[in-house]
Write a structure and sequence with these properties.
Elements (H helix, E strand, L loop, with lengths): L5 E3 L4 E6 L4 E6 L6 E7 L9 H8 L9 E3 L5 E8 L14 H6 L9 H11 L11 E3 L22 E7 L3 E7 L17 E6 L4
Antiparallel strand pairs: 1-10, 2-9, 3-8, 3-10, 4-7, 4-9, 5-6, 6-8
Length: 203
């Protein structure tokens, strides 16, 4: 799968196993698609990329190039190696789930990131007993000094990407977020597919 371009289906999920030293390049193909991203230790799925631990360690709301995301055991798990986007991502918002869409007025089942995580992991024969808070790549959640948050359209352009280098053997899962009620995937666009590539460790 190295250097192969893999589709994260619109409104769907995908997962991949990568070894320590390999990287994954997450591509915002059409420019306005949020990609919820998780990482789990390949040896023990109870260790996962933690937004709480990362914020406490970095003392930042958004990690930058050269920063690592940390696991719930306070170990670096993915490091940001490259980011061609404006660097606006979110570490605060939980993954959407069917209950969330119920609160937004949906009366029928709605595709959601929590179920996309589960389905992506199932393709690899893996499962997680819970849905950790994701790294919401390309998601634009401005905040004010008073503590207010809002859901805004991404500021990325087509083809922007982020490269995340694995600090240990991991399973990385993605969801092309199906949110079509709030403008997090753009003001006037339906959720679209995104893509990723696995990059080998430097020789």
């Amino acid at each position: 799968m190295t250097n192969e371009t893999v589709t994260i289906p619109a409104r769907g999920g995908k997962a991949v196993s990568i070894r320590q030293g390999q990287a994954v390049k997450v591509i915002n193909t059409y420019g306005e698609q949020v990609v919820d991203t998780w990482a789990f230790s390949a040896e023990d799925m109870s260790e996962f990329m933690s937004m709480d631990a990362t914020r406490a360690t970095l003392q930042k709301l958004i990690a930058g190039v050269g920063d690592s995301y940390y696991s719930n055991r306070r170990k670096p798990i993915l490091t940001v190696e490259e980011d061609t986007s404006p660097g606006i991502h979110d570490t605060l918002m939980a993954a959407c789930d069917n209950e969330r869409y119920g609160l937004l007025g949906c009366t029928d089942y709605h595709d959601n990131c929590a179920d996309n995580l589960r389905s992506g992991l199932r393709e690899l024969g893996a499962e997680s007993a819970w849905v950790p808070s994701p790294l919401n790549l390309f998601m634009n959640i401005p905040w004010t000094q008073e503590g207010a948050l809002s859901f805004e359209a991404p500021v990325t352009k087509p083809g922007d990407y982020v490269v995340l280098r694995a600090n240990q053997d991991v399973i990385v899962a993605f969801s092309a977020c199906p949110q079509d009620i709030l403008p997090i995937n753009g003001q006037h666009t339906e959720p679209t597919e995104a893509h990723f590539q696995v990059i080998d460790a430097p020789s």
